[in-house]
Amino acid sequence: MQISLKWINELINLEKTKLDDLIDKLTLGGFEVEDVLNMKVAKDSITALEVSSTANRSDSLSIQGLSLEMAALLNQTPKKLDYTVKTCSWSDQLQSLPVKSSIKKDCSGFIGLTIENVTNVTSPKWLQQKLLASGLAVENNLTDFQNYLVLETGYPLEFYDLDQLYSKLNSSKIHLSLQNATKTTSFLANNEKEYLLNDLISVVCANEVPISIAGIISSATSHYSDQTKTLLVEASIFNAAKIRQQSRQLGLRTDRSSRYEKSLKNITLLESVYRFVSLLRIANPNLQCKLHTISEFKNESSIKITLDYQRVKQVLGPIKNSTVNEIAYILPNDITNALNRLQFQVTYDSTNLKWEILIPALRNEDIIREIDVIEEIGRIYGFNNFLTRLPNVKTIGKKDIDYQTRQKFTSALLGLGFNELIQYSLIKQESYLNNEINLLNPLGKDYSHLRLSLLPNLLQATEENLKKGNSMLEGFEYGHVFSTNSSSEITETEVLAGIFGGIKPKQNWSESSTQVSWLEGKGKMEQFFKTLNILTYWKPYQLGKEKNIFHIYCTSEIFLSNGQKVGIFGQISPILANQLNLPTETYLFEFQFEILKSQLQQNSLTVYQEYSLYPKIIKDLSFIVKKTISFDKIQELIYFNGSSVLQEIHLLDEYRGESIPKEHTSLCLQLIFQSEAETLQNEKVERVIENLKHVLKQKLNATIRG
Fold it and tell me: Cβ–Cβ contacts within 10 Å for residue 422, how many?
C-alpha cells in the first residue's frame, strides 16, 4: 500500500519526525517499509512510503487505520475527521427502515443507498492529487471517489446505475437481496467476461436478478458509467472465507475482493457512506439521498483479557537499563501507557499487579489471548529496548521410547546398507493398491488420498531413481498409514517399510554381476532381527490387499515367538516389476512399529562376554548331500560334533550343476574355530575336521569334496 506522508500529516503531526526514525518505528512495529518514493504532484514535492502489513491487520489497510498505528508508535493523539464526528442525517430513516432478513448469511453489514440528481462526477483537484500520491491513476469520474474511499476508510463501495436497473427490471420498485445463484447461471461482468455461476456463489440481486457477484464484481448491465445520473450505492461487509472461496472457484480476484479477503469490520461502514455523499455533494448541491436497504448489523464484540505483570516480565525479559548488579524490567506505568496508546480500555489493579483490558472490536481477531497483548506492549514500547538473551536451560530433555527405538532400528538398517527415506503421506489413487480414504478438499490429484501403505511411494521412488540412471535404491522409511474398519472409522498406525534387491554388489572387479536371491533377501531380514535380539518365525502368506504388489509364491508373514504378527516380507510381483521397469529380484518389507517397540522393551538385558584374546582358525568344508536335507539340520549336526572350539558356521556357496548328482546339492561351509583359554594348534583343528567328515558320511550319507 502506497501512502502519502502529506496525507498522513493531516491526521497526525509528522513535522518534527525524521523520515528514518519513522521508517524504523514502522518496521519495528510490524509494518515493513518496502520503498521510499519522492514524487512531484502538481507543484508539490511529496514523499510516499510503500508499506506492507501482516494479513491479520485489516484495520491498517487505510489511511485512517495506518494513522492510528503511527500515532500509537509515535505517542501522539490522532486527529478526527469532521465527517466521523458529525451525526448522519439519516438517523430517523434508520429507525423506520425495515431490516432485510434476506441479507444476513455470509454478510455482517449491508447498506443500500439511492442518490439522484448526479449532474457532475468530476473529482476535486485535491482528491486527484491524493490519488496520484498514492500511486493510482485519475479518471475524473465516479471511479476516483470509489478509489479515494478505499484509501481513506478501507471500505470498497459498489455503484450501480439506478436508471438502468429500473429499465432492466421494468419496475420503479427495487428489492435488494443476497442469495445463492442458481446452477449454471451465466453472468456477464463489467470486465466484459462471462462467468458460469453455481449454487455455491453468492450474488446480490435486484428483484431476483443478479446485479453483482457478492463482494467481487458487478454486472455489465448494471454498472455505472460517465452518463449515470442516478446511483444505487452498496456498502457491505462480506465473510472473508466466503469471498476467498468464490474467487478461487471463478478464477477472479479484484481490488474489491482483495479487501474483503482481509476480514473487514463494520465499525464505521455507515460513516464511509456519509463520507461519499459529502464528497459528491461538493459539485452536486441538489443531490437527493435516501436509504433504501439496511441489514441487521452483526455486533462486533469486544474482548476482555486479564494481563499479569509477572507474565509480561517472563515473556519480554529485562530492558536495556539493566546492569550487572541489578536487572530492570518494563515498569507498570509504561505498560499502562502502551495500552492507552493502542486505545484499549484499561483498568489497573496496583495491588495484584494486573490489568483488565477491553480490546476494541476493530482488533478482536488478532488480539484474543494474553500473549497477544504482551506482543502489542513489546511492539509499542520497542522490542529493541529489551535485552536479547538466550534462555538458561537447566535440564536437558530425555529421549523418549519412540526415539530410542528408531535409533536402534536405524542403526541396524544402516549397518545392512540401507538409506533412510522421507516421503509425503498424501498420495494419488494407485491402480495396484486401492486407496479408499480420499480427502474432501485435496490440494491436487497427486495429493488426494491417504496412504494405506508405505510401499507404493517406495516403489515410485525406486522407479524414478532407476530412470535417472542410478543404481537400485536400498532404503527404508518410518511413516503413518491409514485404514478403515467395518464402521468406516479411520485408524492410524506407524510402520517401518523398506525396499532392496536388484544386482548384488561385487566383492571384486573380476566377479560377474548376479541378482540378489530370495534366500539372501530373507537372510538380510533375519540379520536385522538378530541385531535387535528379536526372535521370529516365518510362515507363507496368503495375499490380500497386497496381491498386486507381492509375488504370490515368494511372500511370507513374520511373527514373534508369542504369535504376534510383525509384518510382511516378499518379492515384488513380476507383473508390477514389468510395469515399473524394476528388477524382478526386488524385495519389500513392512513391519508394525509399535509391536517391534514393545518387543524391544520386553527383551531382557543383554549380557556381554569378554572377547577372546586368542586367534581364530578358519577352515572350509565342502560336501554333497541330498537337497531335501535342511540346512538347519546340517548346522545342528556340525555344532554338536564340532567340539567347544567351533564358534561359527557360515554358508559360503551352494552349487547345483552337471557335475553334481541329480536331487543333490554341493555346499561349502566356512568353520571358525577359537578357544577362550589357549592358542589352538592346527593339528587339533584338523582332527575336528576329520571327525566332522566322518559324521557327515555316517549320518547324512554325504560325499566329501576335496
Answer: 8
For 200-230, give one letter per residue: b (16+ CB within 10 A) or e: ebbbbbbeeebbbbbbbbbbebbbbeeebeb
Same domain, 219 and 290: yes
pLDDT, residue 95, reads 44
Structural domain range at position 632: 617-705
- Cα distances (Å, whole numbers) of residue 39 to 24, 43, 680: 22, 10, 97
Q: For residues 389 and 316, is the Cβ–Cβ distance under 8 A? A: no
Cell reading at 422: 522421507
On whether the CB atoms of residues 186 and 254 are closer than 8 A, the answer is no
**Is pLDDT at 96 greater than 50 in this prediction?**
no
**Count: domains in the chain:** 5
Question: Is residue 173 in a domain?
Answer: yes
CB proximity list for 230: less than 8 A, separation 6 or greater: 114, 115, 116, 117, 118, 161, 162, 163
How far apart are alpha carbons 492 and 181 in whole angstroms? Answer: 40
Q: Is residue 108 part of a domain?
A: yes
Q: What is the pLDDT of residue 102?
A: 57
Burial (0-12, 13-18, 19+ Cβ within 10 Å), 265:
buried
Tell me, yes or no, whether 396 lies in a domain.
Answer: no
pLDDT on residue 686? 93
Q: Residue 48: give its domain's CATH number.
A: 3.30.56.10
Would 160 be classed as within a structural domain?
yes
* DSSP secondary structure of 231-300: EEEEEEEE-HHHHHHHHHHHT---HHHHHHTT----TTHHHHHHHHHHHHTTT-TT-EEEEEEE--PPP-
- Do 316 and 411 fall within a single domain? no
Sheet holding 536-540, edge to edge: 419-420, 475-484, 490-501, 586-592, 565-572, 550-560, 536-540
Among 253-262, 436-445, 542-551, the least confident range: 436-445
* 496 vs 16: which has the higher pLDDT: 496
Q: Which residues are annotated as a binding site for Mg(2+)?
A: 366, 372, 375-376
Feature table: binding site: 366, 372, 375-376
